[in-house]
Specification:
alpha/beta; 6-stranded mixed sheet; 10 helices; 17 strands; globular
């Protein structure tokens, strides 16, 4: 059997206020073509289908439109979807009666029966080949919230990793009881694992924070493949067959250099899975100026004036995204205006300006021992922050402007 593992679509995502609908549309069209050309038997989507718990109409239309197109074009395709931390479990589960009839198996949240035991009929999914023969079992475990773990005592001090382990132990024990000789065993998860690389600008800390990263031995050696979601950089975890698929699109400028991809998993019974990684075409280019490091405001504006003109881009939505990185020696109140002027008529669209100063003192310039932030007047906080960043006192006119703004706010 051939499976395709993808994750973290984040339908409805915006990047600094710019909608990504056209990029997701291009990805989903490419994915449909890939499912057909690669003769895929089952699609595994490991969480964060949507960007938010309450996605907009366009995001939902893209999701259901993809499912309908996939089943129309590839009637034998099985689809297994688990919820992520961005998803609403109830929203994903709502169309279950309809999706079940289309061989689309969605597990939005951890299902339990009336007696509070795990609903293994929902969590364990048989994957069948074109002849109807079961070739593999998927332990379709979604993102596990703290409430799912049935912890004893204060959750703030509980061993969350042990709670997650107990869920996987129970689900996998049920899978082994149903599996027959020669059938592969696959597990899914949407979680943060020990020893991984994450994008701090776009990934939320989950399961009580990254201090609760899960060890890879939660997934036993007899698993043929572990399909993970949550981290946006495609990567293996400890073992080659325990993998994050990564997101298909860069979801922040920090992910500009990631190789966004999907993973094709070829199963041969209980033996090791063969993996192939297919890069996802990038519809809209990403760019930084300068390409590496930072530059002064004057140098940045000079580089921006050399960029190609807008006439080189066929459509507005294809204009490259741009991050500008500036090194400041002091306040530059006209920085944004100067950057925008240098970009007038250019193909690139400015998303963000990141600034860096040569000073990296402690926050607020280092408070005396025992001093609490609440003990400082707002003006003192402003002065300390200014000194920490620029190694000098704020000019009198700037300090006066701060006090004027603060007084206006305080008086409404």
């Amino acid at each position: 059997m051939r499976l395709l593992h993808t994750s973290d679509w984040h339908l409805g995502h915006t990047l600094h206020g710019v909608a990504r609908d056209h990029e997701h549309e291009a990805f989903l069209a490419w994915l449909l073509d890939t499912l057909a050309s690669e003769a895929i038997d089952a699609l595994l989507l490991t969480g964060d289908v949507f960007e938010t718990h309450n996605p907009g109409a366009a995001a939902q239309a893209a999701w259901y439109g993809f499912l309908a197109s996939a089943k129309q074009r590839l009637p034998g395709l099985q689809i297994v979807v688990v919820g992520g931390n961005h998803d609403s479990a109830d929203r994903l589960n709502a169309p279950k009666p309809l999706l079940d009839r289309m061989a689309i198996h969605v597990v939005g949240g951890l299902p339990r029966r009336d007696d509070d035991t795990l609903d293994l009929d929902r969590l364990l999914v048989p994957l069948r080949d074109q002849t109807g023969t079961t070739r593999a079992w998927v332990a379709a475990v979604p993102f596990l919230r703290t409430a799912d773990l049935r912890l004893v005592g204060d959750p703030a001090t509980a061993d969350l990793a042990a709670g997650v382990r107990s869920v996987y132990d129970a689900v996998l024990a049920g899978a082994r009881a149903r599996r027959e000789a020669g059938q592969a065993l696959i597990a899914t998860g949407h979680c943060y694992m020990v020893g991984t690389e994450l994008s701090e600008l776009s990934e939320r800390r989950i399961l009580g924070g990254n201090q609760h990263a899960l060890p890879v031995d939660i997934f036993p050696e007899d698993l043929t493949y572990v399909a993970l979601g949550h981290l946006h950089k495609a990567q293996a975890v400890g073992r080659s067959h325990v993998r994050y698929a990564g997101s298909p699109l860069p979801l922040s400028m920090a992910e500009l250099d990631y190789l966004h991809q999907v993973t094709v998993v070829t199963l041969d019974g209980e033996g090791p899975a063969r993996l192939e990684h297919l890069p996802v075409p990038r519809l809209v280019p990403f760019a930084r100026v300068p390409a590496r490091g930072t530059a002064t405001p004057a140098e940045v504006c000079q580089l921006l004036r050399r960029l190609p003109g807008r006439e080189t881009v066929a459509r507005e939505e294809l204009r490259p995204y741009l991050e500008v990185r500036v090194r400041l020696e002091g306040p530059e109140p006209r920085l944004k205006a100067d950057v925008e002027a240098a970009l007038e008529g250019k193909a690139h669209r400015l998303l963000t300006i990141r600034t860096e100063t040569p000073h990296h003192e402690a926050p607020l310039g280092g408070l005396p021992a025992g001093t609490q932030l609440a003990e400082l007047a707002p003006g003192q906080v402003f002065e300390r922050l200014y000194r920490a960043r620029f190694s000098e006192a704020p000019p009198p006119e700037l300090l006066q402007a701060f006090h004027t703004l603060f007084d206006d706010l305080a008086t409404g």
